[in-house]
Amino acid sequence: MKAALLQLTSGTDPAENFAAVAAMVRDTDAAFVLSPEMTPLLQKDADALQAAVRPEDETIAPYRDLARDRDIHFLLGSAAIRREDGRIANRSVLIDPDGAVIARYDKIHLFEAALPGGESYRESDAYAPGDAPVTTSVGGLKLGLSICYDVRFPSLYIGYALDGVDMIAVPSAFTRATGKAHWETLLRARAIESGAWVLAPAQAGSHADGRRTWGRTMAVAPWGEVAGVLDHDRPGPLKVDIDPKAVGDARARIPAWRQR
């Protein structure tokens, strides 16, 4: 299956962010397209976020139209979504070629970090956590959903392996400091221990809200080798061929995922 992982520099204007996604999608022949964390709106200021966030239907409507128009499965890596209880979810949404939502996943592990230079994050100040893993299907392949900081919690991925997934999505917005230190290592570790494809579209570069993200969108094969990477922090698509046979091969060699 041909997949395209989009690397974006999302800002605070949802219309501009959608236009960037649509332009990349028009230039790919992939059947499965994945975008990064916070594709429609990247806003770290809690007050500005509260003012800008919208319900799911309004937020994802243009992406549903895009999936339908291009006849693709589209994973909106995540978006800030106003829940019915008024709280905000960091939510991944999988849309099928008919434009229908077939899976939703709310980020379980909320990012906290105190980084050199005074940079700090506490995602729980603005977001409510999810409480359940989610699996779904794309083109006959089973997909486990996760978002960014989730990648630091191996038990989620072992659970997906035991559930028989072929692929795991890790749409992200890693900071430059954590990305430089940990990004590739974490992604390869999750692929090795689960024996699944790990697909990680990323935010990249300098954003309108003042944030700087690492980029380096990456696809990792089930044996742990990097199948493709954008080795920079500029927007662009990463194209990769997903071979389901590689999953069975990796798990047959070392069945550690099953022995836990």
Write a concise synopsis of the structure shown.
This protein is an alpha/beta fold and about 260 residues long. It has helices at about 15-25, 45-50, 55-70, 155-160, 175-195, 245-255, 255-260, and strands at about 1-5, 30-35, 55, 75-80, 90-95, 100-105, 110-115, 120, 135-140, 140-145, 165-170, 195-200, 205, 210-215, 220, 225-230, 235-240.
Secondary structure topology:
Layout: E1 2-7, H1 14-26, E2 32-34, H2 46-52, E3 54-55, H3 56-70, E4 73-82, E5 88-95, E6 101-106, E7 112-114, E8 120-122, E9 135-138, E10 141-145, H4 154-162, E11 167-169, H5 176-194, E12 197-200, E13 204-206, E14 212-214, E15 218-220, E16 226-229, E17 236-241, H6 245-253, H7 256-259
Parallel strand pairs: 1-2, 2-4, 3-4, 10-11, 11-12
Antiparallel strand pairs: 1-17, 4-5, 5-6, 7-8, 9-10, 12-15, 13-14, 15-16
Mind explaining what this structure looks like?
29% of the residues lie in helices and 29% in strands. The strands form four sheets. Strands 1, 2, 3, 4, 5, 6 and 17 form a seven-stranded mixed sheet that branches. It is globular, with a radius of gyration of 17 Å. Helix 1 packs parallel to helix 3 (56-70). It has a single domain, classed as Carbon-nitrogen hydrolase (Nitrilase/N-carbamoyl-D-aminoacid amidohydrolase, 4-Layer Sandwich). It has helices at residues 14-26, 46-52, 56-70, 154-162, 176-194, 245-253, 256-259, and strands at residues 2-7, 32-34, 54-55, 73-82, 88-95, 101-106, 112-114, 120-122, 135-138, 141-145, 167-169, 197-200, 204-206, 212-214, 218-220, 226-229, 236-241. With 260 residues, it is α/β, with parallel strands linked by helices. It starts with a strand and ends with a helix.
